[in-house]
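Trying the structure run again after the queue cleared.
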Amino acid sequence: MAHAMSPVEANCLKCGTFYVKSHSQMKFCSNICRLMSRVKMGRCWEFLGAKNNRGYGIITVDGRQRLTHRFMYEQVNGEISDSLFVCHSCDNPSCCNPDHLFLGTAKENTDDMWQKGRQQNYKNMDRGSSRKSAALDEYDVINIRVMLSRNYRQSEIADLYSISRSVVNRIHRGQSWTHV
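Done. Tokens:
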């Protein structure tokens, strides 16, 4: 049977603060010190630890993976809604400098990307009926919007056009076919 470790005082490897270790692997007094131990300081605070496939830093806090810039923003400014994005004024996904972070909606984040010309993966993307995989054309979308305004059920519209109800729902909420 494993014995629980007796509480031991230790020095944080990052800030030097004395703290009580709760287990033998604990080297830092807080999650913020643990995060900052993996940061290269400069204009941007570049997180050097694990990153996701889009270059955003990842840290595990209380058994849950967190994006480092979002975690840092919350440490400085308090808890935020899951519906909000923590955006980078520096456009560096691995930066966690609180001075470079601001809150925005999904739309504001996308608008920021387009205004700064960071949409290289989207620049040449076909829209609407010019996409090879499009099941609808612009005329269909206009008709769908008219039907929605006349209270047709989304499932009826989906069946009529042989598309999924979620496609109709995204058109209804203005999340797709926004150029029409």
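The longest strand covers residues 8-11. Worth checking whether this holds up in the mutant runs.
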